[in-house]
Amino acid sequence: MAIYPPNKTQKDIDEVYKRAYERTKIIYPKKKTFFSPRLRTLHQISIDKGYLASTLVGIGDFCIDLVAACIAAVKKINRKIFPREDVIHGTKKDSYVTGKITFAKKNDLTTPIHHMQVEFWARTFFGGWRKMSSGHTDEEGVFKLYFDFIEAKKFKYRRSFHFEIHQVEHVFFNQDSGEPRKKVSVFDSFKVKKSDLTGMGYDLGLIQLFYWEYRDDVPIPRVVIKEQNEDAPEYYSEGRNEAAAEQFIPIEIIKDKHLLQIKRNPQSISIESIQDDYPTNLTVAMEREIPGSTRCDYWFGRRMMNGMSCATFLPDEKEKGKYWVKIFGSCDYEVNQEFAFPTVYGQFKIADNGLPLPTKIIVKGQTDAYNKNPFQEKTFTPNDGEKWEQAKRIMRVSSALSSEIDDHFAGTHLNTEQYAIAVRRNVRLNPVAELLLPHLKEVTLINHTADTNLIGPGYIPRASAMTAEGIIERSKDALGTHDWKNWKPMEPISEQHTFAIASNLFWDVVHQFVDYFFDENEEDIKKYWYEIYCMSNDLVNNSVPLFLSEQDSRKWTGEERELNQDRIEYNHLRACFDNTLSRDIINGKKKSISSITKSKNTPAEGDMDNLKDMCKYAIMVATFLHTYVNEHQYEDIGEVLYCSLGLRYGDKEDGIFQPENDYSIAPDLTRATQMMWFSNLLSRTEYGFITRNEEHDIHPYFSKLLLDKKEEFAKLHVNVENIESRTNI
Amino acid sequence: MGAITRGIKGFFAKLYLWIFCKFFTFIIVITLSLKRKRMSHDNGIGAIGRATIVKNQKFPAHDFFEPGQVFDLRIRHASATFLDDAMNCIRSMSIKFSKNEFKSPFDLEMNTGEISLFWSAWSFFKFAQLRKEKYGVEYIEYYKKYPEGLEGAKIALRRNPNSFHDLRYYSKTPFKFKGKDDIKRYAKYRIIPFDNIPETGIVDNLSDVDTGNQRIFPNETRGRNYLKEEYETRVKTQEVKYRLQIQIRTAQDDENPEIFNNMVPWNEEMFPWHDLAVLEIEKTLNWEDSTRTGFSLNNMPKTLGYIPAKSIYDYNSLNYMRAHSEWARKARMFSYKIFKFPRPIPNDDDRNSEDWKKIQKNKVSKFLRS
Fold it and tell me: Which residues of chain A lie closer than 8 angstroms to B126, CB-CB?
């Protein structure tokens, strides 16, 4: 295939792209009916369980839903009848309940939970709630809630009082004034016997909470979630679950149908029929109009630059005007022996139209089942005919898997989670909570789902070369190239580098918004600086080591050294990681994340700027960067034969160098439908957008700033309406 | 309407207090007094002497405290609650302006520590309920739940003081004081050594966990009765004198109830301690006379008595309850007559003990054998 399909021009492809894009845009289905299948929470989905296909399960689920709805209704009525009014009963403050709140995990026992909201409630014999006292823990986690003892001892109150620990569940904003409103929920509560109150102090002792605990079974900063629906540190908003159900149930049904077909009558199903059953994606739609439009060099370069991979173009030091895109394959991570994951270097030139054109592809590593030399190299140019097409496909596939793990999972999901945990554990009274929580919420939940659906026994280890252990190790390494300090978006290399230009445009918006927020809240941000100090400590202490810094470079062979130095150089450039900064060394490990402050009570010089930069970075990662890679999955990995996450070695000598119609290297039927399910799941179930602001949890100024740039973004093929406010899929 | 409601509620609160105190006393009678036990201060030694009211009075004049007046005096020092002087215990000094074993115009009951371990009748009930003593360790749960109780214990416990005489004793909960000018006032009392020698037995930096552990030190060489024996010797060989002091404040209409709280000492700058009387000890009493000695807050002039309490949560309910526990003392006296007089604490190796029953049993069996 040449630069364009035969007798076609760039204009033809651009036009078919526009039409296909419009046709394949995600349209929200209608609301569910009484007989519609149901999805209670996003975490219910499973890569291979026929959850929705079973009638029995469906009926059972309906019953559970019914019971849950009744319980919810009773609770709602209860709340209506017995509202919790924010009025303190009693006038004197002559008695108190005290205690200390710390984390509960074994290596966290001595860490106090500061500034936690605590309340002391009584209930009347008729069920009414009466607030006796409220307050916060101090920096040592100690609380002392004074209340009116004589009031508390009145006959009208029941025998048990309720000591409650509250956490901020969601932050909302008044869409006119921008005034924040926090929705708090009871994190834990303890009954206090009325008879135990004797008039002076009553000590509840040491209260240890399993509250936003760091996991210690993985080398990356993750939060402990025991049971997502009942014992999680946070929960999806109702709207998020509903949106997921609305958008995803049809996809789930298709996958379930395919799995049944494969089980009962595999002859009745093929990769083509699987592809046809799922909603048409961009490349399929384009191919239907102009065959070869998505396989030509023009499209290849365009998608490498502005597609899901949004690759980094490293100037070629030897050939001026040319660039290298480097996709690092399995390297030394644990892989299986079924799928290939070679390292691929692609050389590009920038054409007159500003888009990159591939000029050379070097495939390094194992590409067939026989020659296992990890450093073997094969070089291809556009003159290599069919092999060139195969090399492009291999680069697409390696790039997709690398992008999925390094950029999407590690770069946005895990990267955001480490900020979410540090903020949730520490920032409560500081206005930074109001700034960040809307953008950091729910990421831990979706990551928890990813643990089983994508990693664990999930899709990626089954449909690609990477094992679960390999993914975790690779993610840890990838995370070691991400830091907020001195971060800036990718530099555009041409006017057609729309990803980089849009990134910079969005970065400007984030700058304006965060600067505005800090100007408005500077006093309180400084007042509660202790929270920032603790957050910074948590962030740094729990961050992963610098990329590859744990390896003993003296033991590298010459080839390993060359590859690893390439990886370090390229990945630092890609993540805009400033390797020259001095970073904290904890337990002999140089940490990847820079400290925001070392000052405990007030910001030292430069600390406020550090905090601003950290906030901007966290918002950027959780919103734009995640949205970009996430929504482009549907376009770039939504066609099985165009680009999957892995090519099987097969049994031929040429291994993965086979045409698309050789299904022996393509994913098998089960993985094919799972792949379609996977790309649809990730791209079609988005919910929570900055400008749509479905839950009023986004600061109106941020939405306004973004809407003001709608036209500019549209020219860069970015619809601002589709930029998510948080990483929750 | 409000006044009527308040009146009815007040009546029931007082009624409840009265019933509560009577019931509590009844329990004490059943469980302790009839077994020849005091509620807590069994381990003690009595003495007699005289009390001389100071001439140069710096507190408002009172009919009862005429300058220079001399009263007979009977006192009793004790260690609560264990029957082992070498344990970490609250020490007490009770006095009466009389040599009689009970009858007196003026009694005071005082303990070490400027604050207490409980502050109302209800709080005292919880204190008793959560004692859970085992092998000399007690109140663990109480101290965990009630920070002031823990603090009170830390301040009031005395381990191995040199002498009962060295310590400071406080009445803590205030009393009425209506002097010659008929102005309503409140008073607190304390006793200090006459020469104000430094107090011994104070345990510094006692940890929260160790406060409940009142056991003797490992390899303790002091005997079970060392304090009583020391006091006996001291009285025989030295002059033993104390100062009874008083702290006075004028009552206000808009009184903050906290002034009655025995956990909140009055500010000594605003309400300084004034000498009230000098107490001189002449001789100690033997075990029987010491044990027979009883004190009551009812033994006070009306103008100096306990302050009426309004409910079981009232800080003054403590003294109210003390005053209403008269039946417990009477029952104990009655039990002495019925079951013979309790035997003294032996100097044996049954350390960390409060087993009164065991002591009495041993003695009886030995008595029967002899």
Answer: 195-196, 198
pLDDT number for residue A455: 86
Please give the Cα distance from A13 to A6 (Å, whole number).
Answer: 12
Sorted by where each begins, the domain ranges of chain B are 2-369
Answer yes or no: CATH 2.60.40.10 is held by domain A95-211. yes
CB pair distance less than 8 Å for B148 and A200: yes
pLDDT digits (tens, 9 = 90+) for B173-200: 999 999 999 999 999 999 999 999 999 9
A305: phi then psi, degrees, rounded to nearest 5: -80, -45
Q: What is the structure's pLDDT at A43?
A: 55
Q: Which pair of tokens denotes residue A711?
A: 């036209």
Is A198 close to B126, i.e. CB distance below 8 A? yes
Structure tokens at A223: 């939060």
Task: Tell me: pLDDT of A242 over 80.
Answer: no
Interface test with B, best of A94, A149, A191, A200 (most B CBs within 10 A): A200
- Residue A275 · residue A600 · CB < 8 Å: no
Domain B2-369 top-level CATH class: mainly beta
Closest Cβ opposite residue B147 in set A150, A195, A201: A201
Measure Cα distances from A186 to A105, A168, A216, A495 in Å. Answer: 20, 9, 26, 52
Contact state of A198 with B315 under an 8 Å Cβ cutoff: no
Cβ neighbourhood burial of B366 (10 Å; 0-12, 13-18, 19+): exposed
Residue ranges covered by each domain of chain A = 95-211
- What's the complex ipTM? 0.86
> Looking at beta carbons, which residues of chain B come within 8 Å of A94?
257-258
- Residues from A contacting B (CB-CB < 8 Å) are 94, 98, 149-150, 153, 195-196, 198-203, 205
DSSP codes of every residue in B223-248: -TTHHHHHHHHHHHHS-EEEEEEEEE
Chain B contact set for A149 (CB, 8 A): 313
Q: Which tens digits make up the pLDDT trace of A455-506?
A: 877 889 988 999 999 999 999 999 999 999 999 999 999 999 999 999 999 9
Handedness of CA A665, A670, A673, A676 (dihedral sign): negative
Across the interface, whether the CB atoms of B123 and A200 are under 8 A apart is answered: yes
